[in-house]
Amino acid sequence: MDNIKVLIVSFYFPPYPKVGGRRWAKFAKYLNRDGVDTHVLCLTFNQDNGKLGPWNKDVEEFNEKIYRIRKEFVKPYHLRTLPKNIVQKIKWKLSIALEKYKKKKYSGNYSDPGREYAVEVKNKTAELIQEHGFSTVIVTGGPFTIPFEVVKLKNKFSKVKFIVDIRDNWTGGVKNLLSNSQLKAESSKEELTYKRADNILTCASYILEDINSRYNLVGKVHHIKHAYDLEDFSPEIFKKQKLINSDSVEMVYAGTLYVGMEKEVYKLTEFLRFLKMKGLVPRVRLFCFNGGYENIIEDSDVSDCFVYENIVTPLELSKVFSDSTYILQLRPKSEEGWENFLSSKFYELLLYRKPILYFGPSGTVQQFLENKKLGIWIDSYSDDTDFDQLYNQLLKNEIPTQSYDVSKHEFREEVKKLKEILKP
Question: Does residue 424 belong to any structural domain of this protein?
Fold first, then answer.
């Protein structure tokens, strides 16, 4: 693939510590190792500088190929402080009013975090194409304003292949947040972006189906799913067989506790209450950005079962999962379709061969775990959960099945598929 030179354009990228920066950090690492000359254009905010992001190590070996647009992220005044005097109160109210006015007047999704930077990213992309002669540009979203602007360059660089990667549901997730005119404008941006792009990638099958059903782009849209990276784990972890103390039940959740998870957290407290009634000693370790749901947990009679932990490296977290009894997945019902999303973290969890306890609505996650016999579904929308039946299932030690082939979800498998799409 000597004649292929790739520029990845990603709003999020290490040292940004959340999962938005992971996908293309991994692809860039493996493409470069496989001889595909791959560079990255990203935004780096001052707040991220010096942070020990989980994927910093992945980008060290091609650091000289990363071009960073450095910015200071400044929140509106009313989100930075609470008013302490009359002057500040006036400024605070004016800031809220101004933000509401801007949001109302904006044509599209004003909340898109790439909105202010998209034109600058497009101009820098054009500059890098001219300077380095890239044959392919891959631009990922959300945020979605950046792919919308960058693929406009197809008119200027007709011989360059432009690939748009969609990690989230573009307009499907904001239907109730926009006015009819704003939704129409945002939908127009989405459609134009897809039509201008040479190829479209998405990490979720339900997003692929949605794009094809609305825009009839069959053959142009490809499913390059999330995957686990074996380099994030120590081989010794998977060789170790842990003898579980029959009285101690340790559960681990890692990730973000998103808005709208009240039902899932309440159902989890019910399950802990059930385990305590059985004479067991349950503990839930939460490795979460910015915590979450402390009010529900602290007001419950099982608050002593919860421990909020500091964020750790992927290798350290893998040791925690390996020593756990059960692994937790919490998904709310949402317009974004989180109950249907098989994330990179989800595939990583399969490696541990531990029962996955899924608290959430029915959907792709529930079907995958039940059909493959890899976990238990605890319906967070049911008022009469039979915890005895579910727990007896777990005691049979038939879940997870040890015969399931996890290797098909390894990152290199997705790299192979991506390289086929990159071919001229």
Answer: no
What is the reported pLDDT for 288? Answer: 87
Inter-helix orientation angle 262-277/387-395, to 10°: 70
Give residue 51's pLDDT: 59
pLDDT of residue 241: 47
* pLDDT tens profile 135-189: 999 999 989 999 999 999 999 999 999 999 999 889 987 888 889 999 999 999 9
Nearest to 57 by CA among 255, 314, 351: 314
d(CA 66, CA 58): 12
For residue 26, give both structure tokens: 């991994």
Q: Say whether both 324 and 215 belong to one domain.
A: no
* Same-domain check for residues 268 and 397: yes
Residue 244 scores a pLDDT above 60: no
CA distances from 259 to 158, 176, 265 (A): 42, 15, 11
Q: Do residues 71 and 43 touch, judged by C-beta distance below 8 A?
A: yes
Express as a percent the part of the chain with pLDDT over 70: 95
Please tell me what DSSP assigns to residue 217.
-
Cβ(17)–Cβ(277) below 8 Å: no
Strand boundaries in 279-355, DSSP class E:
281-288, 306-309, 326-330
Q: Is the dihedral of CA 195, 197, 199, 200 positive or negative?
A: negative
User: Structural domain tally of the chain?
Assistant: 3
Task: Please tell me what DSSP assigns to residue 149.
Answer: H
Q: Report the predicted TM-score, pTM, of the whole model to 2 decimal places.
A: 0.84
Range of the domain at 90: 76-105
CB atoms under 10 Å from CB of 88, counted, come to 13
- Is there a single domain that holds both residue 66 and residue 193? yes
Same domain, 21 and 132: yes
- Going by C-alpha positions, the residue among 16, 1, 418 that lies closest to residue 226 is 418
Average pLDDT over residues 388-415: 90
